[in-house]
Amino acid sequence: MGKKRISVQEGQLALANLPEQMPTAVRYLLQEIEIRHPGGTVELRVPPYGAVQCIAGMDHRRGTPPNVVEIIPELFIELALKRISFDQVPIGAGLVLSGVRAHEIALVF
Fold first, then answer.
1. Residue 14 buriedness (CB in 10 A; 0-12 / 13-18 / 19+)
2. Tell me: the pLDDT tens digits for 23-66?
3. Fewest CB atoms within 10 Å of the CB: 1, 30, 68, 96?
């Protein structure tokens, strides 16, 4: 059985009603990234709301992924909606990269 998908309408409503709908908005945007950038090269985590594997090139199935990006929800929303660019965010300011290919997450934003 596949994951329950958030509809475009439900996702847009959540984005319009931040911060009350932050969990749904983050999950919706993660879902869109997973669809648009399929693959298993980087695990993108937005704790506590969710994580997806994305970016083509390799597959990761078990254990700790070799390339992890962790972003706080507020920063993730700003990046995903293109309100700020990835290169404007200093590493450590709500963004942690781990692994030699983690920087490829910039392709998503």
1. buried
2. 999 999 999 999 999 998 999 999 999 999 999 987 656 667 78
3. 1
